[in-house]
Amino acid sequence: MKSGKLIVLSAPSGSGKTTLVKDLLHKEELNLEFSISAASREPRSGERDGKDYYFLSLREFKDKIKADEFLEWEEVYRDNFYGTLKSEVQRIWDHGKNVIFDIDVVGGLDIKHIYPERTLAIFIKPPSIEELKIRLKKRKTESEDKINMRVAKASTELATAPQFDAIVTNDDLEKAKQEVYQLVQKFLEV
Ligand code: 5GP
Predict the structure, then answer these.
(1) pLDDT tens across 129-163, in order?
(2) Nearest ligand 1 atom to alpha carbon 110
(3) Protein residue with its CA nearest to atom 15 in ligand 1
C-alpha cells in the first residue's frame, strides 16, 4: 500500500479556507491532490458530482457508513452528512500524491488523530464572527436561516482551534496564503 502525507485545512464555513486550498493546489512542488468528500446535501449551482463532492442520497450515505467505507464522517448540519471515503485517500496515495482536505473542524481533528505523524492540521480563523456573517451574506448561497445556523456553529468551532498544529488568521488573504504555504512546505520538506 502506497502512502503519502495529509494536509488538513479546517475552519468555520465562510473563513476562506476553500480559497486557500485552491491556492495550494496550484503549487506543483507540493504534489497535492484534493480529497473529494462525500456529501448528502444538494449540489449548489455550478458544483459537479465527482469534482466538488461525491453527491450521495441520504440513503446511500448511510449505507456506506454501515459498510465502514468512511475514514471519518459527520452530520455537519441536520440531515447534511459529509465524510471522507477511505477509497478516496487511497486513490490519491496510489497517484503518489499528498492529500489535502477542506473539511470541518471535527473531521479535521479526526484525521489528525487517525494519522498523527503524517498529518498537518491547520485551523483557518476568520477575523471575527461579525466578518464571517458578512462574508456568508455576500456569498449568497445560503438562506438567512442557514447563515444564522452556520454562524452559531462557528463559535463552537473557534474553541477547537488550540487542538490544531497551527492557526492562521485570514484577515489579509495574501498574507494568509503565504503563511499557509510556508507551513505546508516545511511539513512536506520540499
Ligand atoms: P459546504 O456545504 O459549505 O460545502 O460544507 C459544509 C461544511 O462541511 C464545511 O465546513 C466543510 O468543510 C465540511 N465538510 C466538507 N467535507 C467534509 C468531510 O469530508 N468531512 C467532514 N467532517 N466535514 C466536511
Answers:
(1) 888 888 888 887 778 888 888 888 888 999 999 99
(2) 22
(3) 103
- In this structure, the residue with its CA closest to atom 9 of ligand 1 is 104
Domain of 133: which CATH number?
A: 3.40.50.300
CA of 147 to the centre of ligand 1 (A): 15
The string of pLDDT tens digits covering residues 99-118 is 999 998 999 999 999 999 99
Residue type, 30: L
pLDDT value, residue 126: 87
User: Any residues with Cβ below 6 Å from ligand 1, and which?
Assistant: 13, 37, 41, 72, 74, 76, 82-84, 102-104, 106-107
What is the Cα Rg of the chain in Å?
Answer: 16
> What is the number of domains present in the chain?
1
* In-domain check, residue 48: yes
Answer whether residue 52 is part of any domain: yes
Q: For residue 101, what are the domain limits?
A: 6-189
Tens digit of each residue's pLDDT (9 = 90 or more) over 6-41: 999 998 877 888 899 999 999 999 999 999 999 999
Bridge-partner residues for 38, per DSSP? 54, 83
Given a contact cutoff of 8 angstroms between Cβ atoms, the answer to whether 170 and 154 are in contact is no
Residues 177, 185 contacting (CB under 8 angstroms): no
Cβ(19)–Cβ(190) below 8 Å: no
Q: Give distance in angstroms: CA of 104 to centre of ligand 1.
A: 5
Single pTM value for the model: 0.89
* Cα 45 to middle of ligand 1, angstroms: 17
